[in-house]
Amino acid sequence: MHGCGNDFVLIDNISEKIKEVDFPAIAKNLCDRKKGIGADGIIFMDIDSTCDIKMNFYNSDGSRGEMCGNGVRCLARFAYHVLNLPKLNILTDAGIVKTERIDETKYKILLNNPSIEDYNCSINYKGVNYTGSYIELGEPGIPHFCLEFDFENTNIDELYKFAEFLRHNSKFPKGANINFFKLTGQNNVDELTYERGVEDFTLSCGTGTGCVAVSLFKNKLINSNTLNAKTPGGDLTIELEFKSNNIKNIYLIGETEIVFHGNY
Ligand SMILES: N[C@H](CCC[C@H](N)C(=O)O)C(=O)O
Question: Which residue, 34, 106, 158, 180, is the most exposed by fewest CB within 10 angstroms?
Answer without folding.
Answer: 34
